[in-house]
Structure formats: C-alpha cells, structure tokens
Amino acid sequence: MAHLTTNPTNKERFMCVYPAYVNNKKTLAEGRRIPSDKAVENPTCAEIRDVLSAAGLNVLVENKMYPREWNRDVQFRGRVRIQLKEEDGSLCQDKFSSRKDLMFYVAEMIPKLKTRTQKSGGGDTSAQQGEGGKKGKKKKK
C-alpha cells in the first residue's frame, strides 16, 4: 500500500506525469499544469520517458489513463512515474527540485527530439502530396 510507506525509492512513491500535464492543446480544466506557451503539442508517454531517461532519472511507464482524458485512444494512454528523491530524502538531481521544474524541462526538451523534428518535416510534405493526389482524382472524373 502506497500510503503506508515513506521510502521515496518505492515505485509507488515515484512522481506521476501524464502527457496531458504538458499538452498545449488542453485547458487547465482538462488537466494542463504549465502555461500553454511553454507546453508541447500532443506529447506521448514514450517522448516523456525518452527525455527523462536521457536526463538520468529512474523512469517507469505504466499503461494507465488520465481520468480527465475523454479520448480512450491508444495515443493518449500512459502514465510516467519518475523517482525524484533518493532513499535518504535527497534529490536525485538538483535541477529537478519540484514537479513544475520537471514538467518545464520535459516541455522544453520534447520539441528537440529527433522524432519530433523528423515528423514535422515529413508531415508537411506528405500532406501536400495527399492534397495533390486528391485534386488529380477529381479532375479525372
């Protein structure tokens, strides 16, 4: 039982981060926890995990849904648990002293991921090609 233990290295005591916390498409009522100008567009659990594990933190991914998330799609599933404190109560890393610090770091680093930079470039060209194909089909009819 999580509420009975005070050991910060216990997995149940790790801090939880849902993608909705740093999603700029969400409102505060829908669960965003940082300002929308600093948030990221539609982050995934995998991206949050990649950023935090690269920063040297102990990270776990769970297949859970955020309660305020109305869309039950696989893309919006997942919860990331992060160990912020050592067994003696000291911080794992000094730059992450609070939940907000961690969320700001995640929102800052996700756009710099290789998957994000490649997706945005490839997405624009495929969208343009798709529109061109549709126009061509309409002309043939």
Automatic annotation (TrEMBL):
GO terms for biological process: SRP-dependent cotranslational protein targeting to membrane, signal sequence recognition. It is found in: Cytoplasm; Nucleus, Nucleolus; Nucleus, Nucleoplasm. It comes from the Eukaryota. One of its GO terms (cellular component) is signal recognition particle, endoplasmic reticulum targeting. SUPFAM superfamilies: SRP19 (SSF69695). Residues 115-141 are annotated as: Disordered. Transmembrane segments: none annotated. Keywords: Cytoplasm, Nucleus, Ribonucleoprotein, RNA-binding, Signal recognition particle. GO terms for molecular function: 7S RNA binding. InterPro entries: Signal_recog_particle_SRP19, SRP19-like_sf. It holds the Pfam family SRP19. Belongs to the SRP19 family. PANTHER family: SIGNAL RECOGNITION PARTICLE 19 KD PROTEIN (PTHR17453), SIGNAL RECOGNITION PARTICLE 19 KDA PROTEIN (PTHR17453:SF0). Component of the signal recognition particle (SRP) complex, a ribonucleoprotein complex that mediates the cotranslational targeting of secretory and membrane proteins to the endoplasmic reticulum (ER). Binds directly to 7SL RNA. Mediates binding of SRP54 to the SRP complex. This is Signal recognition particle 19 kDa protein. It comes from Aldrovandia affinis.
